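User: Thanks for the earlier help. One more: Oxidoreductase. Can you show the sequence and predicted structure together?

Assistant: Of course, both are below.
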Amino acid sequence: MPIRVGIVGGGLSAQVFHAPFITTNPAFTLVSFLRTRAEPVPHYESLPVSTDEAAFLASDLDLVIVTSPPSLHYAQAKAVLNAGKHVIVEKPFTVTSKEAEELVKLAEEKGKVLAVYHNRRWDGDFLTVRKIVEEGKLGRVVEFESRFERYRNEVREGAWKEQDLPGSGILYDLGSHLIDQTLTLFGRPDSVTAHIHNLRQLSAVTDDAFTLHLHYTHPHPKLITLKSTMLAKLPGPRFTVHFTHGTFVKSGLDVQEEQLRKRITPDTKDFGMESESAYGTLYAVDGDRKVKTEAGEYRAFFANVAAAILGQGQLEVQPRQAVDVIKVIEMAKQSHKEGRTIPF
């Protein structure tokens, strides 16, 4: 029997980043949505929409995906777990690490799968960087810079990410991706130094730019720099990685989001494949060369969740790893406020 799935929310995250993977994976069947208004979800009009959370959670669901604003994640994920359902929570996991830890403990007590949607572990560019790092042919990493930059010198009307709500702002939104990728590669840092700003000075009071330095001393020293801004008309490279014997530079963004926004489904041939013109460049002591980008594979996240629910494997995104992402965000906020480096 397929895993019966309900989705909380009906916006971009639900429509683009979750529903297409559920409906194209035979391990799942998408049953219903929970929304604040009784309107069909675009492109999924045949599926029922509930506005009653209690009735939704009492229905015959195995897995609930929470795609609501971050300020609601904790309460909604807690309700899902208490209803005896498995849960996927959109990033950022929660607003505070205390909330995150409580959810992890509750999931363990209930014996349910709790997965956080750190899908960008399966970006093609990150998979390429990870492969190069783990192969070790260029020696050890000494500096690692990861950017997620865009240009939007206006505030989107009604966008919760730019409203004065807990968990809003670019640090929670895009920072959670960059932090999770870094922790996946290198583990917990020794300390964090951060600068977080509102550079546009528009009507939104939320942060729209940050620079984070994650400091590592063991087993070798390395400096990690994570950057994001809403005012990069010419974005910098997505990744710049300096090794002891070379450098890898990759520009552009993973293609999966653009494909999904165009309604290209994940089961389409060549989904997640990048064109040769976008490949990164490896600058090594024995010469430079282009490096083929690994295929992006958000499908792997959902396949892994299905395996965990069915008792056929362990979660790739362990919930306690997601807790660490929120801890780093909290450390970054403290660092900026106090003007000092914060130890982990």
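User: Great, one quick takeaway?

Assistant: The domain at 120-301+326-343 is CATH 3.30.360.10 (Dihydrodipicolinate Reductase; domain 2).
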